[in-house]
Amino acid sequence: MPKISSPTHVQGAPVFADRLRSGQTLTLVLAAYFVVQVVLRFILPHGLELDESEQVYVSQWLLAGYGAQPPFYNWLQHGAIQIFGISIITLSGMKALMLFLSYIFYYLAARQVLEDKRLAVVAALGLLTIPQVSFEAQRDLSHTVAAIFGACLFLFTLLRVISRPTLVAFLLFGIAIGIGGITKYNFAVLPVAAGLAVLMDRDMRRTMLSWKLIPAGVLALAIVAPHALWLVDNFSDASQSTLKKLGGDDAGLIGGIASGLGSLTIGFFSFTALTLIIFAAVYREHLKAIVSAHSRWTRLVGRILVLSLALIVLMILFAGFENVRDRWLTPLLLATPLYLALKVDAAKIPVEVSFKRLWGVAIVIMLLIPTALALRANMGRINGNYGYVNIPFAALSKTVAEKAAGANTVVVASDRQLAGNLHFSLPEQPVAVEPPPPGLKNRPLTDFDRVVFVWRTKDGSMPVAFDKEFSGYLLEQGITTAPQDVAIVGYPYQWGRPMDQYRFGYAVMDLPR
Question: Could you give one GO CC term from the UniProt record (predicted)?
Answer without folding.
Answer: plasma membrane
